[in-house]
Amino acid sequence: MTQAFNSAALVGSTGQGSEILNILLSHPSGPKTYALGRRPLPQTSQSLFPLISPHTSTWTESLKSVSPSPPIFFSSLGTTKAAAGSIAAQRAIDYDLNLDLARAAKESGVKVYVLISAAGVSASSPFPYPKMKGQLEEEVKKLDFEHTVIVKPGLLLGNRQDRRPAEAVSRALANGLGAISNGWLTNSWAQDATVVARSAVVAGEQCLEGQRQKGVWIVGQGDIVKMGKSKRQQDKMQG
Predict the structure, then answer these.
(1) Interacting residues of 41 by C-beta distance below 8 A, sequence separation 6+
(2) Which pTM does this prediction carry?
(3) What percent of the chain has pLDDT over 70?
(4) For a tag site, which of 9, 62, 102, 164 has the least CB within 10 Å?
């Protein structure tokens, strides 16, 4: 069944999420966009409805208060151990809060759930970060949205503030290789953050428009590049 893309909700509106937010705000359908966050957003738009609170414990109720419920919910919520202060604090955001919001979205009647995850994560990993991300993927699948879209990029490229020196070095290398090869040396292991955001929005739209079968759709790095760059070419032509 086709549904109108007239509204959307988003959590994680900074970093990768800011790219998704910018795409939603410039979308030709002009969807009302409800953005959960701790701090005021730099973006302004008549279609932007910030749901701002420094207390994340209130976010699930804020999401459920939106009426009518948006048909699609994007989550790019995440942090680092350094920013959170500990693995336990990181898990409280990356896993617990994400899952609470997914459950709230389901209860609210959201039909399409889009999660920005990561390549190589697994619930059985011996390492905390890939383990919590993998566990989150498994739990949101169980919520049985009409469409569960899990976007799994590799290393995110672009202008990002890195707290992890090793990742910053890898990103600098990938940015350089991508620039001299038009992406073919990096597409299989690193993607531009804007391309990832475009692919997430395109995937969500395809679900709303009935172009995808109901169930779980894993969007890997190949599909991210294909959908994200295809959408970029369309935008250039329209511009």
Answers:
(1) 13, 21, 35, 48, 50, 52
(2) 0.85
(3) 80
(4) 164
